Structures are given as structure tokens and as C-alpha cells.
Amino acid sequence: MYLGPWRVDVTVRPATPRLVPIAALARSVARALDAAEAPKPGSIGLVLTDDAELAPLNAQHMGVAGPTDVLSFPILPADAFPPHPGGPRRPRADAFPLPPGVRQPLGDVVVSVERAIAQAQAGRGGQTGDLRWSPADELRLLVTHGVLHICGWDHADPAEERAMRALEQELLGQPRSDPAHHPLSGRPSSTTAR
To answer: What are the distances in angstroms from CA 158 to CA 19, 35, 113?
Structure first.
């Protein structure tokens, strides 16, 4: 699916529940790429699957046994994206030069829809793991979260985690729960992100 400068390739594995229309998920991806100022034009993959597919990927790439909700596989290093609030201060590196008109591959996000449903139904959704909301909202959050990881955002450092969570809430259109400022502009915002 093409959305402005972005090509979003969505793969839905067989028997995976469709909680959110594909076009809506692709728009969530595009909003996150825009907010993170990803290199344009770009392409990204989104795979919607289950715990059985995520578990071996989690073990292989993260060294953690069992499934997880989302994994991101970035192609570009974090310094190919502009610095962001709470993130490490680093000079921005140029993306790998491509011929004119070629979209920059950005990476892939793999989401366990099964995990999104379980987390939401158990009241373990959202950024803090204690939010009661719909499985569809949890899926949108996981997609947004995964895309921000593709774009160099992380949550290992508390300041960067706060900024990432605020941006996620803003992108999802959730009301801000604190009087913090908009994470990118420093201006007050009526919405926040995860």
C-alpha cells in the first residue's frame, strides 16, 4: 500500500485475526514514520502473525525464550534518523545513497496479534501493562511501537522511554495523562503517545 512517500507491505499470516483494517494499520505505520522523520521515500514491512512465529524469533534475536508482542528488524542504523527527545545525542548519518526514485528499505515489524488480544483481554495492555482497552487498540499500539524502534527509538533509558511513550500516545490520539510537553516540539500538546 502506498501512502505518500511510504510503501507499507502488510503480510497477514493465515488464521491471524483481522482486528483492524489493513489500510488503518498502514496509516498508523505512515504516521509513525512521518513523526520519526524517516528517510523518504521509504518502504517498510509489517507482518501480522501469532506467538508460534514470534517465539523462535524472540529466542534467536533477543535471547529470550517464549513469545513477545512485537519485534522490529531495522535495516538502517539509529543514526540514520534525526536525534529525538531523550535519545542519545549523535550526529545524523545519511541513509545509504540509492538511485533516484528508489525507496529506502527501512526494515520489518513483526507483531503477534495473538499476544495483542491476550494482553488486552487480561487488562495488561498499553505502555504500562495495566490498561484495559480493545485488542484493536493494543494492536495499533504495538504496530506504532515497532515502527518507532525501526526509526531508532528505544526505551532502555528512562528519558527516552518517556519521550517514546508520549509520542506513541500522541500518534494513537490518546489524551495526555500528564502535563508534559509535546515530545518533538517542546510545546504543550493535548494528546500523548506511547
So the answer is: 31, 20, 27
Residue range 33-42, pLDDT digits in tens: 999 999 999 9
Angstrom distances, CA of residue 19 to CA of 16, 30, 105, 180: 9, 18, 26, 31
The residue with cell 524502534 is 149
CATH of domain 2-192: 3.40.390.30
Q: Identify the CA nearest to 49 among candidates 114, 119, 108, 107.
A: 114
pLDDT at 192: 23
Spans of all domains in the chain: 2-192
Omega cis (within 30) before 41: yes
The confidence score (pLDDT) of residue 122 equals: 86
How crowded is residue 35: how many other Cβ atoms within 10 Å of its Cβ?
21
pTM of the shown model: 0.84
Mean pLDDT value across residues 166-192: 52
Residue holding cell 517465539? 55
